[in-house]
Every structure is written in C-alpha cells, then in structure tokens.
Design a protein that fits this description.
The complex is a heterodimer of chains A (469) and B (258). Chain A is built from 15 helices and eleven strands. Chain A is an alpha+beta fold and 469 residues long. Chain A folds into two domains: 195 residues, no CATH class; 243 residues, no CATH class. Chain A has a six-stranded mixed beta barrel with strand order 3-4-9-6-8-7. In chain A, a hairpin with a 2-residue loop joins strand 3 and strand 4. The radius of gyration of chain A is 35 Å and the shape is elongated. In chain A, 37% of the residues are buried. About 4% of the residues of chain A have low confidence. With 258 residues, chain B is an alpha/beta fold. Chain B has one domain: Rossmann fold (3-Layer(aba) Sandwich). A six-stranded mixed β-sheet of chain B has the order 6-7-8-3-9-10, with helices on both faces. In chain B, strands 2-1-4-5 form a four-stranded antiparallel β-sheet. Chain B is globular and about 50 Å long. Chain B starts with 13 loop residues before the first strand and ends with a helix. Classes of the chains: A alpha+beta (469), B alpha/beta (258). The interface between A and B is medium-sized, with 25 and 28 residues.
Chain lengths: 469, 258
C-alpha cells in the first residue's frame, strides 16, 4: 500500500474507536510532556548558568600576573619558568602589548588597596578596587540601585550592599533576613564619601639634586625616588550594588568601587611598588601586580592565555571550571531524560494494549483484507501506521503541553522572584531541537510499541479470522 | 507484481487442477480430514458448483483454491500456478490479482462506504487514486449500485450488500470467481438476482466460477457441473445443463411470473 493510503486508512481506523485511541494518545502526550518538561528545565538551567557566568566575566577573563609576584597560580611554572627576579615586569608597556593581542577586547590593571573611608565623620576601613567601563554590563550589577559611573574618571563610587549596611550602622545579625537594597540605597545615594589614601608621588627633579648636594657621594638613588603623601578625595555615592561583584575573590574582595581612570590618576601606593623600588631601573612608571584581560570569545581563552605566557607572565583562568560544569549538566540532562522517559514508557505500554485490543476487535476485518489480497506486509504497515499516527499526534500535543507547563512554572517562579525583588529569569526553555527530538522520540517509541501488535496482526490466519464473529 | 510465476501453456485449458488434495486439521487427539484426497480439473470458463452437507469439506476446498489455506498434502494448481509452492507474499498477490471472492456473510468492512469497500483491493494493488475512483464507480454501476456510493454497508439490504461484494470481487478483473454460499443469507428472490449476475460474469466475461452451496436446486439452475463432496472425499462429479440456459432472461422475470 502507498503511504497516503496507509495514512488515510490508519486515521480512519483511529477515528472508529475515538475514545480509546484518544486516551492512548493522551497517555503518550503526558509522557512526551514530562520528557519535554524535564529536558527543557535542564536546558533552561544550563542557559541560565552559562548566561550568568558569561556576564560575570569569569569565563572570558584571564588574570595575568608577573612572575615577580612569587605567588602565581601555576606552581609548575614557578619551578620551571625563568628566574622570577629576571622575568618581565608587568608595567604599562606590557599591558598595552597584551591589549594588542588578537581576540583581546581589553586589558586593565587590577588596582586594589585597603584604605580608610569617612562617611558622616566616621572612619571605615575597607578594600577599594577599580572597575573598567565595560563592567557596566556585568551581571553583578543587576538589581543595582542608582546608576553606574557617569564617566570613567568621575569622582564617584559604587558601594556593595554590605558596606552600605556598615555605613548606616545597620549590619544585620547573622541569619537575619537581608535588608532590602532599595531601602539601604535611599539615604546614601548622592551623598559624599571621603577617601583617605596614600599617593605615590615622583620626587620633583629639582629636589633630587638638592638632596644630592647635601649627600652627593653615596646613596644616589634619585632616579628611583618618590615620596608617599597622604591625600584625600571626595567621592559621590552613585550606586549600591545588591550582589557581590567580587564574590570570587574571597577575603580580598572589594566593597567600594571606583572608576578605573580615576583610580589610576590617584596613583595610590600599591604593595607591589615597595618591592619594585629595589629594581635598578624602577622609575615613577606604575607597575601592576596583576592585569585582568577580557577575551572576546570564551572559546579563545586558552590561546590568549598561551600567548600571554609566551610573553613571560603567569596566567590564570577558569576555563577548566567551565568544562567540568558542562560535565555536570550532561549528567543532569541524562537523569532528567531518564525520569521524563519513564512516563513515555508507561504510555508505550498503553499503545501496545490499545493495538492488541484493536486486533481482537478487527480480527474479521483483517481476515477480509487478507482474503481480498492484502499481504502480511500491508496489514503490518497498517498497524504500524496507526501506532505511528498516535505517536506523532501524542508527540505534538505533548510538546505543546510540556511547553505550557513550562510557561506556567516560569510565570509562577517569576512572580516569586519579583516578590523577592530579584530580576525575572527563564528557567524553562523549549528549544526547537528539543521539540523535534520529542516528536521523533515519541514516534520511535510508538513504532517500537507497534512492533508486536503489527506482527501479530500480520500473522493472523485468514480462514480463522473470517470464521470469527 | 513482476516476479509472479508465469502460467504454463499446457494447462491453459484447465483453470483449476487438484491432485490428491488433502487438508487435515488436528483437534487434540483426533485428526479431522476436511479435504481428503480430492483430484478434480475445472476447465477455464466453467461454472462449477461444489455441493455437500455441512462439514463435507466444500468450504475447506474453496479456501484451498482461494489461496487462503495451504494443503496438508497434494497440490492445487490454479491458472498454472502451484499454490502450495507460493510464498505468503506470492499467495497474497495471487488472491489480489487472480481470484475474486464472495461470502455468505458479504464481508464488507462496516466502517467504510460502499465505494471505499469496492476500491480496497485497488489500494493493495497500489492503483492511483484517480483511477481507483472511476474503476470503483463503474464496478458499482455494473451491479446497479451507482446511487449508493457513499452509503455504509449497514444502510443497505442484504442483496445490495452482496452486490457490492460482487463489485469488489470483480474490481481487479480476476480470472476466477469463488463464491461461498453467496445466497445463504438472502431470500430466494434476491438470491436469484445475485446468481443471475454471477452467471452473467461467467458468460460475458468468461470467468471461471466455483460456487459452494448446499442447495442442490440452486446448483441445478445455474451450474454446468456439479461436484459432490462428503467427508472430504469426492463422491460424485456430473455435468449439468443449467435450467436458466438462456442468458438473456432477466432475473426478476421468474419471480414476476410465479
């Protein structure tokens, strides 16, 4: 029989016992729906994580430090690499060179220091760090109150929520619910913060010879000389961040953020400066303890890392972490898939049952068809077509159902998130491949279920079948 | 269709030849000899009646000729094909192309309209839809059911159903028409109608007809030859001059006159 004829006959036969076949089909759709729901939850979670992680900048960032730091992450390199004292200095020239590497979008120095900030005449000690303009898109600033820096060199500051609590004297006891960031921000936004810091200043050239006159013979270190001066700068609080942008850094994470250009112009004394003082060629030019390099594509991180290593620096990235994360998701997928398939397996037993019943009921019809010339193959194909039609129908309805369930749960979750004043998320994603896969899978399962009934119908003895009333 | 064994030319004169044909069933301990060593030859174009009481093996014999059943031993050669040597697939093709069958209980498929029932064999023969429709229409036209194309079998009388079954049997232009008690469920008048049609096919289309019946009168009226079976054995085989020899006579005439 030709396929259109087969389809037509199969659909006609399905319509003949509408109730039973619909119930079977509903069974399949529930099975498919559960499969789709499970897998789309997996997909949604994976997308959510990768989006979060991509936005956090962890996966496209390479941390570069000089081997002179003596605490590089690559222990192997420390042993085998060049002598730290002879290796390259991470200065402005090196930064520019790194920035010119292919696939690098930016390389900015990591400026961070502990200093005193005064608010309302009360001193507070904390870690301050500089943020490049590109951090604006950083996920960590989602749900931030106020706004990002108006420019890269504005005298402005963004506070982390916990520091805002400290400034207001509202640090909650351990275990108590965290206060709402909007309430914390209200009294602080637009207020002024005074930062005391140690400025590193090159010795004026006129001063150096003067010093030389008084002691001209010996310690002529004028070339490397600079002074450290205590300075103050007034900062306007423009934002209070809800999340912790530097949670990865552990104890060295900063709670106050400044625009990068501003931080650079302050020439704050950095711990590395002291060490570099002893380097013969050291001048006033700043030396960075580390540089963060943003790579355009997370897939290119490895190659960028390699080229930076060739320049003689130590590097660190979390590419390996992302690889194991994918592994975790693959396992999660498999488990969700297995649970989803269980319902479909139950549904497939329903198909077998329905078709075996149909054989009993249509025994005579099968006999007639054989008597007028239907081959075993024709009968088999007809039952297969019926199983297949139920599979496709159930698959399509199931995908729709699974999608609807996902939408409802998404909606519900987002209401909850909004109550918690968190940004809405898409946990449940049904990609096209999943929809197609689900329908095809349902078809395959149905055809496999049809195997036994179709074979049995085909083998029916026509003489016996015709005698059957 | 293509790999079908070609009929041998020497047996052209005989539509059906059976040689010591046996069909035994095993029922527990006992063996039922439904057909027990029957050897007959049916000429092409002959109208044969298979007679016998119930259980005489006439229906089993017909099933063997129809290719619905396989002999336990012996052979049955139809149109030059030894049916016992055909595969299941080839037997299905044989039933589709060589044989047309009508049954006592009509055996139309209840969920289909008459037109669909009649064209069903064409679906198995993979005939195009456009051709199928016109073929089914002309077949139904031939049996006088053109107006009932889209009715379901349950909406028709027994006579009409059997006529539709005849149209279905003829749609693939078979060489052989096998009828199993075709008038058994009909009153005598509609029975006559059906039998006149069968006779018409035999005479006008030259089809070989084998009809199973237990009514001797019916056989005497239409058959050219009567084969009697009892306990699976051939007990008598005689020529007969059909009472309704005149082909032109209309079926309803007899009923109208009496």
């Amino acid at each position: 029989m030709k396929i259109p004829d087969l389809t037509e006959l199969a659909l006609r036969n399905l319509r003949e016992s509408v109730l039973r076949n619909s119930l079977t089909t509903v069974g399949i759709s529930v099975g498919v729906a559960s499969l789709v729901a499970m897998l789309s939850l997996g997909t949604g979670l994976q997308q959510l994580f990768s989006r979060r992680l991509a936005k956090s900048g962890l996966f496209d960032t390479v941390f570069v430090s000089s081997r002179r730091e003596l605490r590089g992450m690559g222990r192997e390199e420390e042993r085998n690499g060049p002598n730290p004292a002879e290796s390259r200095v991470l200065d402005e020239a090196a930064r520019q060179e790194i920035e010119r590497l292919p696939n690098v979008s930016e390389a900015y120095p990591d400026i961070r220091f502990v200093t005193e900030l005064r608010y309302d005449d009360k001193p507070h000690l904390t870690m301050v760090s500089a943020l490049p303009d590109s951090a604006k898109s950083n996920d960590a600033f989602d749900g931030m109150q106020g706004s990002f820096f108006s420019s890269d060199s504005a005298s402005e500051a963004i506070l982390q929520k916990s520091f805002a609590e400290e400034l207001l004297g509202k640090t909650p006891p351990l275990g108590a619910p965290e206060p709402n960031v909007a309430e914390l921000a209200k009294p602080l936004l637009g207020k002024e913060l005074t930062m005391n810091y140690a400025r590193r200043q090159a010795m004026p050239s006129s001063l150096a010879p003067a010093a030389g006159k008084s002691a001209p013979s010996a310690d002529d270190l004028a070339a490397a000389a600079y002074s450290v001066i205590s300075r103050q700068v007034k900062l306007k609080i423009v934002g209070v961040s809800d999340l912790d942008p530097e949670s990865m850094r552990g104890p060295t994470r900063a709670k106050v953020f400044l625009p990068l250009k501003l931080a650079e112009s302050l020439h704050v004394m950095q711990p590395a400066d002291l060490r570099e003082m002893t380097r013969p060629a050291a001048g006033d030019e700043p030396v960075y303890s580390s540089i963060s390099v943003r790579v355009k594509d997370p897939a290119k991180v490895q190659s960028v890392e390699d080229s930076i290593k060739k320049m003689g620096f130590s590097t660190f990235s979390i590419v390996d972490a992302s690889r194991s994360l994918q592994q975790v998701f693959r396992v999660l997928y498999a488990f969700l898939g297995i649970f989803g398939s269980l319902a479909l397996t139950v549904a497939s037993i329903g198909i077998v049952n329905t078709l075996v019943m149909a054989i009993l009921e249509r025994r005579r019809e099968i006999g007639i068809m054989k008597a007028i010339g239907a081959s075993d193959g024709d009968v088999k194909k007809l039952f297969f077509a019926e199983a297949g039609a139920m599979g496709i129908l159930g698959g399509i309805v199931g995908v729709a159902l699974g999608w609807a369930i996902g939408q409802v749960i998404n909606f519900g979750t987002n209401i909850y998130l909004r109550r918690q004043s968190l940004p809405p998320e898409h946990f449940w994603v049904v990609p096209l491949w999943l929809a197609i896969f689900a329908v095809v899978f349902s078809l395959v399962v149905s055809l496999i279920s049809g195997l036994y009934p179709a074979g049995r119908a085909a083998r029916l003895d026509p003489v016996q079948a015709l005698r059957y009333e | 269709m293509g790999n079908f064994p070609a009929p041998c030319s020497q047996s052209d004169n005989f539509a059906i030849q059976s040689q010591n044909l046996c069909r035994h069933y095993r029922m527990g301990e006992t063996v039922i000899r439904a057909v027990d060593g029957v050897s007959v030859r049916v000429r092409t174009g002959e109208f044969v009646a298979l007679l016998g009481s119930s259980g005489s093996g006439k229906s089993s014999m017909l099933n063997l000729i129809a290719g619905l059943d396989r002999p336990t031993s012996g052979s049955v050669i139809v149109q030059g094909r030894d049916l016992s040597k055909l595969s299941r697939e080839e037997l299905a093709k044989y039933r589709l192309r060589v044989v047309g069958m009508v049954f006592q209980s009509f055996n139309l498929i209840a969920s289909m309209t008459l037109a669909e029932n009649v064209e069903l064999p064409l679906r198995f023969a993979e005939v195009d839809r456009s051709e199928r429709d016109s073929m089914a229409q002309s077949a139904l036209d031939r049996v006088g059911l053109k107006a009932r194309l889209n009715h379901r079998p349950s909406e028709l009388s027994g006579g009409e159903q059997q006529r539709a079954a005849l149209a279905r049997a003829l749609i693939n232009r078979p060489r052989l028409l096998l009828a199993d008690e075709p008038t058994g469920n009909l009153d005598s008048r509609t029975g006559t109608e059906i039998m006149d049609m069968v006779q018409g096919f035999n005479r006008e289309l030259g089809m070989t007809v084998v009809m199973v019946t237990h009514e001797r009168a019916l056989a005497e009226r239409y058959a050219e030859r009567m084969i009697f079976l009892a306990d699976g054995k051939l007990v008598d085989d005689r020529q007969n001059i059909p009472a309704r020899a005149s082909a032109g006579s209309h079926p309803v005439d007899a009923g109208a006159r009496s």
